[in-house]
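Hey all, sorry for the wall of text incoming. These are the two entities for the joint prediction.
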Amino acid sequence: MSRMRDPKILIMAVAVALLACLPLFVNSYIVYIAAMICINALMALGFNFVIGFLGQLVFANTAFFGVGAYAYSILLMHVGLPFPLALLGACLAGGLIGLIVGLPALRLRGFELAIVTLAFNELMRWIYLHSGSIGGGASGMGLRPATLFGYELISDTSKYLMILVVTVIGIWMVSNIAKSTAGRAIVAVGANEFAASALSIPPARYNILAFALSGFFSAIAGALFAILLGRVAPESFGLNQLLLGFAMVMVGGLGTVAGPVLGAVLLTAAPEFLRSIPGAEEILFSVLLIGLLIFMPSGLFGGLAALFPSLRERHRGKLS
Amino acid sequence: MTVQLELDAVSVQFAGLKAVSDVSFTVAKGEICAVIGPNGAGKSTLFNAIGGYVRLASGRVLFGGEALNGRPIHEIAAAGVRRTFQNGGLFLDMTVIENVMVGLHQTHPIPLVGAALALPSARRREREAIEKARELLALMGIQEQEDVLLRNLSSGQQRMVEIVRALASPAKLLMLDEPAVGLTSLEVQRLDGILKQLARSGIAILLVEHVLDLVMSVSDKVVVLNSGERLAEGTPGEIRSNPAVLEAYLGHS
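and here's what came out:
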């Protein structure tokens, strides 16, 4: 009951309720963009586990995102799992791929790690392209609609509502983890591996855990992306997607939960307003990134939290 | 007195150069042992050798009779060897209480899945961790600052937080690397009292320090290093009047 008295929880509940009512007021194109914002928010949060909380230059997240999309598609179409199980399987596949990428990353740092993980992205894209009948190769594959309680999620509204629910749960989980033993340990290992070890924290375990969590949450986003599009294809998982995710985390604010979400909202919505001006989207991206890195290196949310200390996110739970 | 830490002919080499050579001494439970010596004498290297940060070229580090060398840092820490760093050991973008809670990793772990789903058991354990952290901060009288970011504290207050954090999980040996640097004389006095109190509770303390007043006041035993070798060992009084020490360390006086 004490939770209900927390004003922040109340504000969140009202915000989610309003977002759920969105399809009543806007056309289906806007609903589609709103669903994309949700997906990108989860993707950016997944990315943030390694580049934000752990503070490593890792570029494998489009691969994790793609693995989520492909694992979901394969589990749904080839294995014949129902939609919720296929979604869960995709998350676990993403977590597993994250863990596997995390192992060699223990020995690499800085630019080497960046290059190796970048290469891993391209390797995964090569695999999608040569996936033959399993993944549909270059043309990808179409998916049957997700079915929930006998109801097919075909309309943009029904997909959006499902995606919104999964996203809210995902953000809630990430924020819980950030305030837990694991969240504190990942941030501590990222900040100073020796100081963390001196407190009996095994750095290797939390390095790998950060990668696995990154894979897990990125893969949820990937699976939702496949559901929204109704198909999966290699072209969705190229360098553009990687840059987009990177920009969202950097613009919003590294190492926070609200930052990547804020970045996802801005960088998903803004280009839609600039569609009519050719080239404006790219210019906006570049200017935002350069400007922020110079004037607000901790991102928009980091800058806001510096102005309003009460916004600062904690790495601890509540007592009440 | 029971021996907590025993160094048995410990040597550390860097690129063929002996940073520490053949150093032996013991620290008993509840004993405060200071390691002094000129810059480059190998004091910090000795700490790093005990904590597992550098490899021993030869010799053994025994902790409660068990060999520590070759084990990873976090295992040595889990066995009860805790330390503070000369600088950079604190998480400056975390608050005071968050820093201490990182130190509770060993005694108050919360399983990941339970934490992610905010299960009642995980919430309860997190509450216990917060209460424990507050209790520890209260012991040092810094509970008022629990929500302050570390970077906004004075260096004296930061040092107190680092000691609280190091002791958050059961410590048998506390190694302090120049804890008095940047402290006001009032804070040095408080540190003096805290160290004596910790020793009374049975913790062995190893102290590297340049502030000799503190060293002479708190130490039961002083080990003098010079060029990586043990030059002398004795009570503060004996060290003060040792001619070799005066020659090498304090200069002719």
